[in-house]
Design goal:
alpha+beta, seven-stranded mixed β-sheet, five-stranded antiparallel β-sheet, coiled coil, hydrolase, exosome
């Protein structure tokens, strides 16, 4: 077999095939952006020892309570079937279970493993959420009693006299406030801004002092380091820290005294930095604002319109004059922040910062928890104040990175974003060329300017698609220890060494952040939800204490080797958390459409074609943040005709004999009723359906209804974001369709990934590479 009993994420030795053999595979040897080397696994160097979620086969003979060797189907379609011994097959056939692989004999087609535990019934929200966490290697059990006993009691905690004496007290002198999403409990950051004498403006970013409560060597620190990050799923949050810290003692809530670590700049009238101060502070936030309220303040909303949305003002017995005075003070601070942030963003843009985009949605849940009671999928609205807060946080992270690197050149924790490989931009350039735009990618500045210029005033989704494709082309940002970066640098990647035999401070280019256009960057502003920020706080405070007292505080910090190991763990955990969040959103998107599948007005959407595949096209639906494949040819070789819609609003997908002509930027379908062509960036009308699988989770399936949509030059955004818009699209499709509904075979519900093939040949490897080529770049 081409993979020789290797499983996904195993470390393997491979034998590259000669070019003469690779040439026999035709165009399967060519991938997007260049040639793909072909090879075969000749040995497994290290197995990934992990547990897998699996399901018993749906149709199987009853075991009658006897222990039998049965095959289970892993949730991950990249993993082969696993043979286990159990007597519970009949009882758990409708459940998800956890299994582990033990061995894989060379004489066996499948690996052998054992049953670990039952998760729960298939389709239950709690079960499927647990599956997502397990499949991404994330474990967030209840915090232990011993760990909780280390922490202060919430009700009895108060500011310590010793801490009050050694911290800069900002409680009475500064207007401190936070701006966060509605309902946010773990408030990491607050801000302040003051106008001083001689045109000087003081900007302060004040971050929760988690390091005061989470001490090195404690159980809390060990558990936070293991978790590394909080995980935000569509309907819940898994915290890195216990609630007594994350939602209370560390959270910078309004009206209570809190410990903070602050960065305070003094700026001139052009917002150039004249001085900067780092240190521990004592703050009392006056307002906990939502993004929406902060935006209303910037937009000049009247006091009567927003007082009810500011809890700190709601219950105060204030005269109208006093209320206006307080609101104007707050409004002035938010507006000044906005001006500073706009200036900072403009400067980064001039240096080549790349502003990316995405179609994000919020899952609105019903009151009944633990069920698939999803009321709506709401597109996240971008506000100017989002940029204001982001720029202030980026600014603080940048200055802290410079500070710790100047004092700890071989053991500071930074975050870098290597330049992406130029070949990864091929598809973006092709898409842009369809609309006559040229995307230059020689540098981040060229890319940023090209994206800014690639705007179609009649079709705003096009620029979003370009920025999404640019996002997919990016390399992954990562944490690293500055002492473990090699001086060798090639094609946007850097070599890491965690061994003690290698130490190098590397070059500044290797430390830089491509997307943000900054020479030094780190994470400092979210210590409640990221362990990297806790380490950076410790490094910054050690440097500050050394400067103040002259003591060797850095000796208490982790050295380069240990820090590099932390970074490796944090990078993998953060990536897993991101993927779990995406999987959770996709699951709830599928559940939403499964609840409304026959209500076609909700399921009929306008999408944008953003990729041409061998047997279909990839489509992005801005309204719901959904993307998927519209198959134009099924496994039987039949081609798709636009769906027919009945007067009742129901539609059926018709497949008939015909053929596809696939080109780089378009696909032409010829069928008995005529011919149609889909080109990159075309707008098409699709029906969103859900494919249910016994062994795997529900997944979105898109079906072509019509190639004809409202002309982009004539449409407006509400057409695609409102119920009225969906009705108009559906009515337009019904008018466009001339043919009657045609009964046709549906697409197979089997996965696009096969389990372990029974035969061993080069064809298996080629087919595998072909399947991989159909997957998203991200």
């Amino acid at each position: 077999m081409a993979r020789n009993r290797a499983i996904h994420n195993d470390r393997v030795a491979i034998l590259l095939l000669p070019k003469s053999e690779a040439s026999n595979v035709g165009d399967h040897g060519e991938g997007e952006g260049g040639s793909v080397a072909l090879g075969a696994v000749v040995g497994v160097l290290e197995r990934e020892r992990r547990k897998y979620v699996a399901t018993f086969e749906e149709k199987a003979e009853e075991s009658r309570g006897k222990t039998e060797r049965v095959l289970v189907l892993p949730y991950d379609t990249r993993i082969p079937k696993i043979r286990i011994g159990t007597r519970q097959a009949d009882l758990l056939r409708s459940h998800r279970i956890v299994v582990q692989i033990d061995t894989w004999s060379s004489a066996s087609q499948y690996p052998d493993g054992h049953f670990v535990r039952n998760i729960g019934p298939i389709g239950d929200v709690e079960t499927e959420t647990a599956v997502i966490m397990i499949e991404h290697g994330l474990s967030f059990p209840t915090f232990s009693r011993d760990l909780l006993n280390e922490l202060p009691e919430r009700e009895r905690w108060e500011v310590e006299v010793e801490e009050e004496e050694k911290r800069r007290d900002l409680r009475e002198t500064h207007l401190v406030f936070s701006i966060d999403p509605q309902g946010c409990e773990d408030v990491d950051d607050t801000l302040s801004v003051r106008h001083l004498k001689k045109g000087v403006t003081e900007l302060g970013v004040h971050i929760a002092d988690v390091s005061h409560f989470v001490r090195p060597g404690s159980l809390t620190d060990a558990e936070a380091q293991r978790r590394s990050t909080s995980v935000y799923l569509a309907d819940r949050r898994h915290d890195m820290l216990p609630p007594v810290l994350s939602a209370h003692l560390c959270s910078l809530l309004s009206g209570v005294d809190r410990y903070a670590v602050s960065v305070v700049w003094k700026m001139d009238q052009n917002y150039d930095v004249k001085s900067v101060w780092f240190g521990r502070t004592l703050i009392r936030s006056r307002y906990k604002l939502s993004y929406e309220v902060a935006q209303q303040l910037c937009d000049g909303a009247a006091a009567s319109d927003i007082r009810g949305d500011i809890p700190e003002l709601l219950n105060l017995d204030l005269s109208q004059q006093e209320l206006e005075k307080r609101l104007e003070e707050l409004r002035g601070a938010v507006k000044t922040l906005s001006e500073i942030a706009h200036c900072l963003k403009q400067r980064r843009g001039e240096d080549g910062a790349v502003y990316l985009d995405s179609f994000e949605v919020k899952v609105v849940m019903g009151e009944e928890k633990g069920t698939a009671n999803i009321e709506d999928l709401v597109p996240k609205q971008h506000l100017d104040v989002h940029d204001t807060i982001a720029e202030c946080m980026i600014f603080a992270n940048h200055w802290v990175a410079k500070k710790i690197h100047s004092s700890l050149p071989t053991s500071s924790l930074l975050r870098r974003h290597p330049p992406p490989s130029q070949t990864r931009f091929t598809h973006l350039r092709t898409c842009a060329g369809v609309r006559g735009f040229q995307i230059l990618t020689g540098s981040n500045k060229e890319l940023a300017e090209s994206l800014d210029n690639a705007v179609d005033p009649h079709d705003p989704e096009v620029n979003k698609i370009f920025r999404i494709l640019a996002t997919q082309a990016m390399s992954q940002a990562e944490y690293f220890s500055t002492g473990s970066v090699s001086s060798y640098h090639s094609t946007g990647s850097s070599v890491h060494s965690t061994g003690s035999s290698f130490h190098s401070t590397g070059s500044p280019d290797q430390f830089s952040h491509y997307g943000l256009a900054l020479d030094y960057y780190t994470h400092f502003t979210s210590p409640i939800r990221r362990y990297a920020d806790v380490i950076v706080h410790r490094q910054l405070l050690a440097v500050v204490e050394e400067e103040k007292r002259g003591e060797r505080e850095r000796e208490k910090l982790p050295g380069n080797v240990q820090l590099a190991e932390y970074c490796q763990h944090m990078n993998s955990t953060h990536r897993a958390a991101q993927l779990a969040q995406m999987a959770s959103t996709e699951m709830f998107q599928a559940l939403y459409f499964s609840n409304h599948e026959r209500e076609d007005e909700r399921c009929v959407c306008v999408g944008v074609v953003y990729a041409i595949l061998t047997k279909g096209v990839r489509v992005q639906i801005p309204r719901y943040g959904v993307k998927g494949v519209v198959y134009l040819e099924d496994k039987a070789g039949l081609v798709a005709q636009p769906a027919a819609v009945s007067e009742a609003g129901h539609c059926s997908v018709a497949f008939a004999s015909g053929h596809l002509k696939v080109e780089e930027t378009r696909v032409t379908v010829t069928h008995p009723a005529g011919q149609y062509t889909l080109t990159l960036l075309d707008h098409v009308t699709v029906r969103v359906g859900v494919e249910v699988s016994h062994a795997h989770g529900p997944s979105i399936r898109l079906y072509l209804m019509s190639c004809c949509t409202v002309d982009p030059r004539e449409r407006r955004s509400p057409l695609f974001t409102s119920d009225r818009g969906r009705k108009e699209v559906l009515a337009g499709v019904r008018d466009d369709l001339q043919s009657k509904p045609v009964e046709a075979p549906s697409l197979s519900s089997s996965s696009s990934f096969s389990q372990t093939p029974p035969q061993s040949s080069l064809y298996c490897l080629v087919q595998r590479l072909h399947n991989l080529s159909l997957q998203d770049a991200d």
